Protein 1
Amino acid sequence: QKDGYRFFMEKEIHEQCVVTSDTMLGRMCDEKVDFEEFDSSIIEGIEEIKICACGTSFHAGLTASYLFERLAKVRCSVEIASEFRYKEPLLNKNTLFIVISQSGETADTLEALKMANKEGLKSIVVCNVDNSSMTRIANYSVLTRAGIEKGVASTKAFSTQTVVLWMMALYFAQYKNSLSIEEMNSELKALREVPKSLKVHDSTHEKTKRLSKRYLHGHGFFFIGRDVFYPLALEGALKLKEISYLHAEGYPAGEMKHGPIALADPELFTIALMPQNLLYDKIKSNVEELSARDSTICAISPLDFDLADDYIKTNKYDHYMLEFFEMLVVLQLFSMEISVRLGNDVDMPRNLAKSVTVE
Ligand code: M6R
């Protein structure tokens, strides 16, 4: 039941503006965030947060690490679950352990959660499936309420996870009094606008269709961004890889000059995430360096950028997270349209399964 869409992925991209409202339902009051799943005792005695996840869920975790530190002023580290499991990690009881999983069944994330439980850490799972293996064993489960996600390429799972984690950062900020009333109000106002920022605009979709023709041939893609737009760049690259089978890498823009810029030539496509509200001048100068070395640049930004070979204009918002969500939709559409043009199976890409229950 694709409801008239060509693919489940396309349907799920369109659903994001609705399901993120469900994610927030009952969890946002006038001036605060509330979770019925836990109370403020969850943060008592907590000195740091550790997040573990795989794939797209890891990217949501990496995004959240910026938000937890910036908003709640809690130290936060993020690890890929398959690495965490075998590194003999030193765990501390004052750490809140958060795992993120759409399915709640990913073998490595489940094992990481078991390890944390065994060490007596407080654990939370951010999950889309109730009564999954992870929700059964975590101390607390926060459901993302994305509805069933059928496309192997995760879309609405990521946006709802990110919304939940942003809300959790604000919940902890309330407890820690780390934001002024004005700052908290502006965060809450931005959160309420998330569904709007996730709307698919026909003109943007058309643009990604047109661009998909040009970006089929080359020797690779760099998706670059800074701050939370770095995990978003990772997510954009992962989306493209898994359904188009083209080589793509996500990179923190400031790292390009430390090696990867050596690859720059017209056949290297740079997808540059250039938000207005966060480090615009910094990313701009990183992109200028790539352009000076002839990389083909596709800029995604609300601000005009003359050096771009192609340009996808996004809306202007007051908050960088709203720019983040609108750019997420652009990246999802872009990878989907490239996959379509290549004749690939968008919903069931080769070699991949929806849920990775073996390590
Ligand atoms: O169910 P999970 O969130 O634990 O799955 C983790 C990854 O396997 C998953 O996010 C994968 O990377 C996506 N299919 C990517 O689109």
Protein 2
Amino acid sequence: NEKFNIAIDGPSGAGKSTIAKEVAKILSIDYIDTGAMYRAIGYKLGQNQVDLTDKNALRQLLEETEVDFEKGDTLLDGEVVNDKIRTPEASKMASVCSALPEVRTKLVALQRKMAQKKSVVMDGRDIGTNVLPEAEFKIFLTASSEERAERRFKELQEKGQQSTFQQVLEDIEQRDYHDTTRKLNPLRKAKDAVELDTTGMSISEVTRKIIDLVRCGR
Ligand code: C5P
């Protein structure tokens, strides 16, 4: 019954969170959604209209901010923000604020602490390369940008949010660009990560592949 960590990285809409949740459930371990943490901070920065070039204001806000998970809910300063952080604005703010060193330093430290004492599945952009370089299992999930936009578009439609497929595709490609070209911990496949292209694969097929990998490797 040894402790182990699974790092899942990849671009927006590759299915990371859906898959990570499934894997965590099957293995009875915790799931940590690091994107939700950047979204929560981005959401709060937007709500407070913080000028991102004002480092003092930024530091002050970060000091007074608490992000946590409880029974699958994302908590921002104790308030459940699951839906508030899923809007297109919050997505953009998350991507923008995730390039700020102050934000990354705070969240990466928190993420490492969360994975220290227990087995977790953690998903994001820099988990295998930066947050948990010693993770026992590393997966890099990809899919074509059209397929990823298609999935996100359906998700947004189900939630009744108004956006066109073209908007969603542009949004995804812009975030890919931001996430892969930023200086600080850009999205990259770790050398020792297993790459899985999920284009045309079902959720259960991808989940099964990862579970097999973990069961073989333990
Ligand atoms: O995964 P999700 O789309 O919820 O992440 C929102 C944004 O947070 C991403 O576009 C990315 O800019 C940022 N992020 C990050 N590092 C992570 C997880 C997310 O920079 N580990």
